[in-house]
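task queued by scheduler; priority normal; single chain, no ligands, no partner chains; default sampling; output format set to structure tokens
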Amino acid sequence: MSDPAFTDDELLAYLDEMLPVERMTVLEESLRQSETLRRRTAAAAYQRDSGVHSVGEIWREHRLSCPTRSRLGSYLLGTLEPNLAEYVEFHVRSVGCRFCDANLCDLEVKMEATPETRLRCQKYFQSSAGYLRQYGAGD
């Protein structure tokens, strides 16, 4: 297998599990075969963890471009403005954000909850709301 060139940002994204799956697979295979690449990866991680940060690293680490979970839920419900819906689509499908994709999958599962689950959630909410009202919470 040829050793494709990887940037230090890609090596760090690999360590943070933030690369698209296809690129991550290629990089992982290259790491298995190349001692030099393993050393580069370790050096990049050491430099990052030693307090040398770029704006890009901070942006990625805190996922500042990721939509909120409620915005992802609105996307699934089809209630987002068209521009925001386009951004979510781009972010998840084109950029390949694995965190947001996992959030979307989780929300999709919750949307498909059985009637029994919905009833149980409603009962929990009603009993909690009654309990809180009894003690004057929210007044």
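post-processing summary
- The first helix runs from residue 8 to 15.
- The chain has two domains: 8-61, 69-134.
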